[in-house]
Design goal:
Layout lengths: L4 E9 L5 H7 L16 H5 L3 H17 L7 E5 L5 H14 L5 H5 L5 H9 L6 E4 L5 H16 L3 E7 L16 E9 L9 E6 L14 H8 L4 H11 L4 E4 L9 E5 L6
Parallel strand pairs: 2-3, 2-4
Antiparallel strand pairs: 1-5, 1-6, 4-5, 6-8, 7-8
Length: about 270
């Protein structure tokens, strides 16, 4: 089996933009300030965090672009801090308010809350995993996804993101803004010939992508500090047809990178 994997679809949620296409074009959209999570039934959606809902939007866009079956596709969800805002809120209740904790809120405070919610919503029967690796989360999630593609011969959705961290969790000035990105990868042998290829995920020096979104400079800087910015960089690069080795973090990780090539090219 080829060491490459094919890219079958991409998606993203960045507040203020209409999906990956809107963000890549730098076209702001006030109608997309909050995630819609239309993939998820309304009852589940009401109790979901903004992070889980933004995962649903990015996941849905990438899956739709790929044409793969939502009920069978495997998935890997990556998040550096996961549902930290919900978790910190529960801890505040536990130690400060002396009230009974909500079992429902506890269920949505775990690191795999989004993967569970989306799996239930789509009646998915495939493998799903949740990974946290700080600023190397995109690289490790891709590594897990590529391993599933190569070992099982099936398509995988890799979805990474983090919401803004609670104020007490990170030092002042080190926080970030919400973003999620998703990519569907699959075996080269069964992919359309024109599908872009990914290969060579390793700790190899590479350039970092820069994008020109239409947002204030301080908001753009905050977005770039998100631990999962590397996956957003990757899907933007794929969308604009880049062919190069791309770093999967903005300097805060260990320097993992991956090669992006056009369909039909060698590794």
């Amino acid at each position: 089996m080829s060491a490459e994997v094919a890219v079958l679809g991409c998606g993203a949620f960045v507040p203020g933009f209409a999906g990956l296409t809107g963000f890549a074009a730098g076209e702001a959209s006030p109608d997309h300030a909050e995630p819609k999570a239309e993939l998820v039934p309304r009852r589940q959606r009401r109790r979901a965090s903004v992070l889980s809902k933004s995962f649903a939007d990015a996941y849905s866009d990438a899956l739709d672009a790929s044409g793969r079956d939502a009920a069978t596709i495997a998935s890997v969800f990556g998040s550096a801090i996961g549902e930290a805002a919900t978790m910190v809120g529960l801890l505040d209740q536990m130690w400060g308010d002396a009230v009974m904790l909500s079992p429902m809120r506890f269920a949505t405070s775990v690191h795999n809350a989004a993967s569970g919610m989306i799996s239930i919503a789509t009646e998915n029967r495939g493998i799903t995993t949740a990974i946290g690796a700080d600023h190397d989360t995109p690289a490790m999630a891709l590594l897990e996804g590529i391993g599933l593609v190569l070992s099982r011969g099936e398509s995988v959705v890799v979805c990474c993101g983090d919401e803004a961290p609670p104020e007490d969790l990170v030092p002042a000035g080190a926080g970030w803004d919400l973003m999620t990105a998703a990519i569907v990868i699959g075996p080269v042998e069964s992919a359309p010939p024109a599908s872009p290829r990914l290969s060579g995920l390793s700790m190899t020096p590479a350039e970092m992508l820069d994008f020109d979104a239409q947002m204030p400079s301080e908001k753009l800087a905050s977005l770039r500090r998100n631990p999962n910015i590397g996956l957003l960089d990757l899907v933007v690069a794929i969308g604009r047809g880049d062919q190069d080795r791309l770093r999967l973090d903005r300097g805060a990780g260990r320097g993992f990178s991956i090669r992006v090539e056009a369909g039909g090219s060698g590794s």
